[in-house]
Amino acid sequence: MSELFLEIGSEEIPSGYVQPALEYMREELASFFTRNRINAEVPEIMGTPRRLVVSVKGVDALQEDIVELFHGPNISVAYDDQGNPTKAAIGFARGKGIDVSELGRDTTSKGEVVCARVEKKGRPTPDYLNEFLPQFISNIPFSRRMRWADKARPFARPLHWIVALFDGETLQFSFDGVQCGNVSQGHRFLKPGKFQVKNLSSYVEESSNHFLMVCLELRKQNILEQVQNLAREAGGIVEDDAELLDIVTHLVEYPVAIRGDFDPHFLELPKELLVMTMKYHQKYFPVSDGKGNLLPCFITISNMPAGEGQEIKKGNERVLRARLEDARFFYNEDKKKTLDDFVEPLKGVVFQKKLGTLYEKMERICGLAELLSSQTCPDTKSQALRAGRLCKADLVTLMVYEFPELQGTMGGYYAAHSGEEPAVFQAIKEHYRPAFAGDDLPPSELGAVIAVADKLDTIIGCIGVGLIPSG
User: Is cis: bond before 443, omega within 30 of 0?
Assistant: First the structure.
């Protein structure tokens, strides 16, 4: 049994591209071996932003032999009255590479026919791989593929090297001018030299010596442990965030967690705004006190060792401070008006060309909210009308223009600042829920009323103008 090892080395691939590419490589290689009658174990994937790696152990060196059955002419056509083979039988046998005496008989829906059983010898697995792997690399799915310099084939980022080994021997193929070999490269900055690869185990050992943590799960666990330790040192915790952890895992080859701090005065801003800025814009881990309150610090994951930590820390603090200063400016500017002041400008924003503006949508929401509340919670009718009127107003604020993900959330804060009733600003915050499959439902009754009214308007309106949902 042999081992296939493949590493595709390139410039840094975007974080979101890495996992889908690796999943494709695992599934497509498994399918390739099955299709071509080559026994192999389940492919193992690993990688970093600069390398996509797949290894398959237990691979047969030869494709399995098979016997193929071919049907020929009818017996009455293949033999004359004396039982001698005719030209039809002789030609059929010649075409299958056998003697006419080796022809057999088989019964089909067309009656009894002559047949040829032809043994097909399996080809060496490396021959198949040399033909298959260039197209396999070309077909790796990326959200966006580009051609680089004078290269003919598009790829996510410029390709620099390919390691392709079968049973320790280098395969013989090239992809877009890059000839495969047995030499990989270390960390771009910490140890950029080349190193030889013999198989998966030697690759893992050598990559570790070259400041590479190529195993995805080990790198993820390493990041998590570093983050948790730094959070504890700061007197806080980092809440579970599988999405952010996956993103940063695919951003680095040699993860080093670094704690940064920011001015405690920024904690006066809404928590969701701070988290959005740190998590989605900067890929930082926010630190909280375990009771839901943020601490004035964050944890970032660097691709460099701790010796450079102070410079990296200061640089990240400067970037975050600039972002938070902008956010504070938008927040303070928006608060100079009441949330109701933003309702009139909705007339200038088109919701859908056949369904009118956001102002018209707001009016429809109010009508539906009045109807729904009268049937479910009559005592909240006036609050439902008020929440319906204000629920889309934050879409024209400076803050939501810069941070669209905070729609609804900022509307709730601005409504509270404007002196609206708690039930109203809570409903505004909740009315986009559920935003995706598995999302929480609005916890308040009034929030549910506005959420249903909003979604009913969208669904019925779209169907009414011929925009039929496909899912």
Answer: no
